[in-house]
Structures are given as C-alpha cells and as structure tokens.
Prior knowledge:
By secondary structure, this protein is an alpha/beta fold. The protein has 7 helices and 9 strands, in the order H-H-H-E-H-E-H-E-E-H-E-E-E-H-E-E. 26% of the residues lie in helices and 27% in strands. The strands form 2 sheets. A 7-stranded mixed β-sheet has the order 3-2-1-4-5-9-8, with helices on both faces. It has a two-stranded antiparallel sheet with strand order 6-7.
Amino acid sequence: MDTARDRKHWTEVAEQWIAWARTPGHDVFWNYLGALHEFLGEGKGNVLDVGCGEGRVSRELRALGYTVTAVDVVETLVEAARAADSADAYRVAPITGLPFADGTFDKVVSYNMLMDVDDLPGAARELARVLADRGEVFVSVVHPFTEQVMETEGRSYFEQKRFDSVDSRDGLTMRFSGWARPLQDYITALNTAGLAVTAVREPAIAGVDANNPASRWATEPLFLWFTLRKLPADLGLDHPRQLSHHR
C-alpha cells in the first residue's frame, strides 16, 4: 500500500481485517496453507513481509524457519502483528518507500498486496531494490482472470479498473478495495524493475466440502503465485520484451 487512498482504506477497515484474518477457517487462506508452505519452502534467511497486515503470513514464515521483518503502511495493523508476536522486527512504511538499504533481504514476500497499490511500477522497484542479488521475491495476487475481480459488468480483462466490494458472512464483514489488473501489467512492472519470473503456481483449494461455495476453487484458480529473481546486470535489457530473446 502506498498512497493516501490506500492508507485511508486500510486504516478504516483495520479492525475488520484483524477479525476476518484471525478467525480460523473463516476465509480460504487456511485451505491453501499447506500448498503455501510447500511453495515457499523452509529456510533460515532474512525475509521481508511487505503489506503484512495483522501478521498471519509473517507467522507462517517464522514457522518455516525464516527471520521475518513485517512492514505495513497502517500502524494499527503493524501493532496487531507485534501483539501477536508475528515477526522478529516491525516497521510502519509504504511499499514505495521501504526504510531498508539496498539488498537487505534474502526473500521478499508480497502476499495479496500488489492488487492494493496505485503505483505498481514504484512498488515493483522497491521489491527489487531491497532484495539481495541472489535472493527471491514471492508474489501472490488474486488470479487476474477470476470472477472475483471481473464483477463489473462489461469490463474487459485487459482493462485496469478499481474495485470495491463488501463480503459478509458468519457475523463478520470485510470491505475490500483495490485494482483488477491483467497479468501482463504485473509482469511488465516486475520485469522493468529487473526481476524475472522463475516459477508459477495456480494452487487448487484443499479440504472443502463439495456443497461449500468455495469448492469452485478446486477447479478454478483463485490465486496466482510466482517467484522472481534479479536479472543479471550484464543482460542490459532496455525493455521487458527483450527477455524473450535471451536464453
């Protein structure tokens, strides 16, 4: 999150999100947890969790053995993460102005955060800047082609469009707001920042009864996960399209 609008939205819904995220089994995060652990892998390096929210991804990273720094633009969320002992260090900062030196982290994690930022190229540059030369970025976004971000009538897949929606169930309500973007927008921003995709997953949901509405995600992708590494400086790429000419 990086703009006044992003900060305002997540400040307003911070308490909603804390309740939503901390109710076990309430949303589908928990059904993907095994696949997330497998894809991230165990490790001992320094990890930055960007847009940490109330800290649930940070807690999972620590469980995998990493030393975790949690950062978010909303102080209420960072304090909630701290109160839950989610990480090893905490900072309040926007994604477009991370308060860390170049190459600080072995792994940078952006879990369902890039959909929320107005300045995607600026966010991508910061992810790349704080990453060590041999480090890895992990990105999760709501799958660009899923119905969840295609609700606006008449919207083209290729159109970048702001979305706002309210989800209420089992006594909890959460207001989501962000951007629906085509996949090429994410990849172009990350390539331009000097990062290249090394692995992609479209995880299927696990452990959901067929009568549960969420069971659709057993046959359709809800999330898109990918990892990226820094491109060698000697490639001298002037444009992301040049990637296709290098082997």
